[in-house]
Structures are given as structure tokens and as C-alpha cells.
Amino acid sequence: MILYHGGTYSKLNDMIENGFHIPEDKQGDNFGITYGPGLYFALNESDARFYSEGGQILKVIIERNLKLLRINPVSPTDKKQKNKLKTKRKNGIENNYDGFIVTNPNGETEIIIWDPTFISKDCLQFL
């Protein structure tokens, strides 16, 4: 599976050099935490570019089948929906899911991987 991640050059370069890890203090902000902690990916380059903060895109090759829990889109400001997501995430982790997959009203599909440490640095490249 090929996924795309947009961000600043320095953030993406850090991912290439050090691999994927999600420190507690750097789990995104604003819409970057809508679906909780994890690394957010797009299925195509153009959607990733929207989040790229300057046009940098990382192509990520996932070398295993992901087990993803399909969820409905939520509002980033709706606390009730966010609490339900926390429960779904907890249950998903307990049932060996890798993350969420959600298709937003605009047709954009996001994949949120909760623990991306299995992704090899060798599978990353700048576009």
C-alpha cells in the first residue's frame, strides 16, 4: 500500500532520519488531532499536499496489510464525538487494529496509524 504524508521539510526529514515515532508533545494540532493520536496519511499526493505546510510530501510504502477500523467523520470540536473515538481506538487496539480509515464529506480519505513504528525508514521518500 502506498500512502502520502505532508508536512514541513524539517519534520519529514526527521522522519526519514529517525523513523516514525509520535512523542506525546508532538501529536499534531488543530485538525491534526481530529481522530486522536497517530500519524495521518492520505491515499493520494494531492490530499497530502493540503497538509504539507509548504509543499513537501513523503511517499510511504507500507509492506504489510493494514487492519483498519472504518469510522465516520467527526467534528474536531465535538467533545462527545471525540470521547466516542477514544473508546473506538481503545477497542481497536485491543482487537489488533492498526488504526482508523475515514472518508470525509469532501471525499478525502485519511488513514490514521496509531503506532507507525513498524514502518521502515527504507520505505520513505520525498516527492
Can you put this structure into words, describing what you see?
With 127 residues, the chain is an alpha+beta fold. It has one domain. It has three helices and seven strands. A four-stranded mixed β-sheet has the order 2-6-5-4. Strands 1-3-7 form a three-stranded antiparallel β-sheet. A hairpin with a 5-residue loop joins β5 and β6.
Overview in brief:
This protein is α+β, with helices and mostly antiparallel strands and 127 residues long.
Secondary-structure map with pairings?
Layout: E1 2-7, H1 9-18, E2 39-42, H2 45-50, E3 56-61, E4 68-71, H3 79-94, E5 99-103, E6 109-113, E7 124-126
Parallel strand pairs: 4-5
Antiparallel strand pairs: 1-3, 2-6, 3-7, 5-6
Question: Structural class given helices, strands, pairing?
Answer: alpha+beta
Q: Which residues form runs of ≥5 with pLDDT under 50?
A: none
Helical content (DSSP H or I, runs of 4+): 25-40%
Shape: globular
Give descriptors for this structure.
127 residues; three-stranded antiparallel β-sheet; globular; single chain; four-stranded mixed β-sheet; alpha+beta; 7 strands
